[in-house]
Amino acid sequence: MSTFLMFSVLALYAMRRQYWWAAGLCGALAIATRQAGILLALAFVVEYLRRCDRRPRAFRINALRC
């Protein structure tokens, strides 16, 4: 199993469980292994919007509060 795939899956799993720090760390490690890991940023945004119900007042700079 490639390290990129492992860190990407772990980042997605952590996002779904709302472990934002772990997701960020795994995402950073995925980016460090391959440049395509930057696309995980889109997954972070989509998951954050999904968790906040897409309400403008629910948007926060600090994703840990959502």
Could you tell me how far the N terminus lies from the C terminus, measured between alpha carbons in angstroms?
Answer: 33 Å
* Distinct helical segment count: 3
Helix content: 55-70%
Shape: globular
User: What oligomeric arrangement do these chains adopt?
Assistant: single chain
Largest sheet entry: none
Low-confidence stretches: none
Give the integer mean of the pLDDT values. Answer: 81
Secondary-structure element series: HHH
Structural class: mainly alpha
Number of domains: 1
| Total DSSP E strands | 0
Report on the structure:
There is one protein chain. This protein has 3 helices and no strands. The protein has one domain (3-65). The model has no long low-confidence stretch (mean pLDDT 81). The longest helix has 14 residues, at 3-16. 61% of the residues lie in helices and 0% in strands.
Primary descriptors:
66 residues; mainly alpha; 3 helices
Secondary structure topology:
Blueprint: H1 3-16, H2 20-33, H3 40-51
Helix pairs in contact: 1-2, 1-3
Short description:
Helix content is 61%, strand content 0%. With 66 residues, the protein is an all-alpha fold.
